[in-house]
Amino acid sequence: MTKQTFIKGAMILLAAGVINRLLGFVPRIALPRIIGAEGVGLYQLSYPFLTVMLTVITGGIPLAVAKWIAEAESKGDHGRVKQIFRSAMGLTIILSLLMTAALLLFAPWITSHVLPDARVYRTFLAMTPLLLIIGVSSVYRGYFQGKQNMIPSAVSQITETVIRILCTLVFAYLLLPKGLEWAAAGAMLGVVVGEVGGLAVMLWKYARDRSRKGQPTVPADMLSEDLSKNSSTASKPRTPVLRRLLTLSVPVTASRMVGSLSYLLESIFTARSLAAAGIATGAATAQYGALQGMIIPLLLLPTALTSSLAASLVPSLSEAAARGEKAIIHKRMHQSMRLSLVAGAPFVVVMGLFAEPICRILYNHADIAPMLALIAPVGLFIYLQAPLQAALQALDKPGTALMNTFIGAAVKLVLIVQLASKPELGIYGALIAINVNIVLVTVLHGISVLRFIGFKMNMLDFLKVGAAMVIMGAAAKWILNRGPLGTEWIDLLAACAAGVAVYLLLMVWMRIIDRYDIARIPLFGQWFK
């Protein structure tokens, strides 16, 4: 198996993440044109509950597997790797089956009493297979990331995305004559088929990895063994493995559960508050669909980088911490934070300045542009949050991440109730609450990392990037206002491309990035070595 360095592994996941984000925008653009904002709202309303269930199943297990396997690999303990994988897979499958049964049993009550729109029932049923599929995939992902081999995760992500795009749009279109609720369920069914494709890639990569080592090619042998055998030779290694796996994963799961429950309550509280403001259920669902299905995905485009960095950061920091290499920890943190800042800044400028043409060109809904313009400035805090949270988890401080997330979630929910229920604010009240939550959690994570390892970003880097953002925005705005090519979308692309070119030149001139950073980028980097 090929082991990559921290930056190379992050760049592999980044390349896959960028491809996924770009491909993923095909259904984001096309789906609202097929089923409208209200249909997207029905599709999105099921996701918060799915997120809660998946958090129970996979919240901390992939990170725990990646962290622990990285530690075992650093010590050359390959037998331990096998034990970790067995226990994690068995635990995940049991939890997945239990959650699936519970979801099917309580689906009618949940959709009619908990969620704000009962039409989400069919979408809710369509998503239930995802629990087992994503659960099993997450263990394989943690396994490969723990070995610092990011290629299987990258290939799996791209495969899943391509299949999901095709199936989501086709199924939604075919079921639309039956009604919006059926079309939304069809879109969710496309997600299920995509996840099956991604899991198939993981299984194939794992089988090939095992066969290269002369070991069984199918992991079924691991799953078929009874974890409760009475044989002392079997029980002795497994008991501490499962216990430590739970010790590592439960705090992370609890931390993520705060975020997942916050997401679920956010959807419920937003809908209830909009109703209190005098907005009808259908209109409220459409507004929620526009926010969560159109605006938020745009803002999260650069998280292709930050999530890649976070995935590579956990095993890398865990290995460095196990060896007591504080200098390496600081180096990795600086690399990940600097890359997140530099990569995210141009997106903030583009979304903030050109919100209206972007929403009109992509979604044919210029009326939602003020939402994008309002949330764009806090994008930088989102992009910096992922590496900070990954650092806290890798350094065995998941309890701190949990408390920070809980504080942010509590503040957000209170603000949603207070602001979104005001007729003059409506959905923008919920948006303000989300902004406050993002900024607060990121700041708390930064303070925590500073307290534990003494790491902090160089303020001069922030000033340099801020100055480059202003100059980039001025250049892009000047070009768009001239309209040199006569077609709005072409002029927008030209303005953005010119602005980014100016920004990158300024980054090199200010010595924020150099040719060695560019040389690490897959495909293009070879020209700068």
Kindly name the structural category.
Answer: mainly alpha
Tell me the span between the first and last alpha carbons: 25 Å
Sheet bearing the most strands, described? Answer: none
- What Rg do the Cα atoms give? 23 Å
Q: Estimate the global geometry from the Cα principal axes.
A: globular
What proportion strand?
Answer: under 5%
Low-confidence stretches: 215-239
What multimeric state do the chains show?
Answer: single chain
What fraction, in percent, of the residue positions are helical? over 70%
Total helical segments: 21
What is the string of SSEs from the N terminus onward?
Answer: HHHHHHHHHHHHHHHHHHHHH
Mean of all residue-level pLDDT scores: 81
The count of DSSP E runs of length 2 or more, i.e. the number of strands, is 0
Structure, explained:
With 529 residues, the chain is mostly helical. The protein has 21 helices and no strands. α2 (47-58) crosses α6, α4 runs parallel beside α10 and α14 crosses α15 (369-375). It is globular. It starts with 5 loop residues before the first helix and ends in a 10-residue tail after the last helix. Residues 215-239 have low confidence and may be disordered.
